[in-house]
Amino acid sequence: MKVLKFGGTSVGSPERIKHVASLISAEKRNVVVLSAMSGTTNSLVEIAEYLYKGNVPGAQETLNALEAKYAGVVGDLFHDGTCHAKASEAIARIFGLLRSFFSEPLTEAGEKEILAQGELMSTALMQCYLEQSGVRSELLPALDYMRTLDSGEPDMPHIAARLRRLIDLAPHADIFITQGYICRNDRGGIDNLKRGGSDYTASIIGAVLQADEIQIWTDIDGMHNNDPRFVEGTKPVGSLHFEEAAELAYFGAKILHPSCVLPAKLHNIPVRLLNTMQPEAPGTLICNTAPDGALKAIAAKDNITAIKVKSGRMLLAYGFLHKVFETFENHRTSIDMIATSEVGVSVTVDDDSRLAAIVDDLKHFGTVSVDRDMVIICVVGDLRWEECRFQAKVLEALSDIPLRMISYGGSNYNISVLVRRDDKIKALKALSQKLF
């Protein structure tokens, strides 16, 4: 059994839904995870924002536009009268539910229920279309098995038991359709696995079912060795170690959600990144046994802020770093890069929403300076400290670019540098030319 996840662009139109249906019908007894149709979650977020502000007409206008879009999709997908009526009824029921939130102030629980409706609509449409096409499929409602603990982590034993039971109840099915992203929390309320969580859903399902492979289908043919938006001639990477994929996902490679990697890695389930529009392309295989001895790819993470704390009191003083890091913990802000010296420490953050308060607290320990509009560029591959040739190549490529920070040695797979936003594209091109 395989787990196949299709993102919003892969099911973003009637034509693409038909194309995905043909792809998933080629093999039997696989689990297919679907995101919401592209643009749907953004519209649902907009509706929730209007309701929070008490702007019901704004919410109604957005919802009406979304409903009209789905009416067009249903009209294009279904020629069979029974399936057309079934799909129309399912979509109408969901829009009726959404309108029920307009009559009272929106709560956080209500917002999460609103956001869950995109995946419920895409899977309802796919299930009806497969039925029209004569494919024996079964809908596995994610809200019947996907649950998180009070920590927010997936409740793996609960998920495994419930999901296996649902599959066993449908021995006739050739394909199982389920929703990505959505779940129930430990209190039984509708919740979600955050944006991009459909990848996480696929990884969790693959882990609990001990799948042969997890496939993430998007609109690009695997993870490229650099950002094709800025660098010409990039190529898909044939294979990556899970650690390499995690570094690239965290530091800017949008094709894979960072959370997706861990369940698959722990349960040794290979993950393959494939292109819906080019299904014959080999894509990128991610596993625990990817070959070493090469540099694989480059990624960039934007909107980074660097913070330096300098203090003569740090010299030979234990506890200084603890106080600095505790400040970020108190303000619930994670750190990306770290560099230390005898008299100071520099760190980077990608969330500056609490920056003013953080800087104010850090001034108790030393002089604080802040550099905004920075970019982390991450080079991933075999970067064990014994392999000195690769580290040297990275720095040689960037010899004409000012480097604010360098991070190396935290793992065997990554060297990161911090540059100004204005130097980002120059740095990406220079690294590609030198390394590939």
Structural notes for this entry:
By secondary structure, the chain is of the alpha/beta class. The chain contains 13 helices and 16 strands. The chain has an 8-stranded mixed sheet with strand order 3-4-2-1-7-9-10-8, sandwiched between helices. Strands 12-13-11-14-16-15 form a 6-stranded antiparallel sheet, sandwiched between helices. It has a two-stranded antiparallel ribbon with strand order 5-6. Helix 2 (40-52) runs antiparallel to helix 3 (56-77) and helix 12 (388-397) crosses helix 13 (424-435). The protein is globular. The mean pLDDT is 92.
Task: Please outline what is shown here.
The chain is of the alpha/beta class. Helices cover 39% and strands 22% of the residues.
Write the layout of secondary structure elements.
Elements: E1 2-6, H1 14-24, E2 30-34, H2 40-52, H3 56-77, H4 81-99, H5 108-132, E3 137-140, H6 156-168, E4 175-179, E5 182-184, E6 190-192, H7 197-209, E7 213-218, E8 239-241, H8 242-250, H9 261-266, E9 271-275, E10 284-287, E11 295-310, H10 320-330, E12 338-340, E13 344-349, H11 355-362, E14 367-381, H12 388-397, E15 405-408, E16 414-420, H13 424-435
Parallel strand pairs: 1-2, 1-7, 2-4, 3-4, 7-9, 8-10
Antiparallel strand pairs: 5-6, 9-10, 11-13, 11-14, 12-13, 14-16, 15-16
Gross morphology: globular
Radius of gyration: 24 Å
What is the topology, as strand order, of the major beta sheet?
3-4-2-1-7-9-10-8
Structural class: alpha/beta
The number of helices is: 13
Tell me how many strands there are. Answer: 16
Strand proportion, as a percent range, falls in 15-25%
The profile of the biggest β sheet is:
8 strands, mixed
Order of helices and strands: EHEHHHHEHEEEHEEHHEEEHEEHEHEEH
Spans of at least 5 consecutive residues whose pLDDT stays below 50 are none
- Please state the average pLDDT score: 92
Helix content: 25-40%
Span between N and C termini? 36 Å
Q: What oligomeric state do these chains adopt?
A: single chain
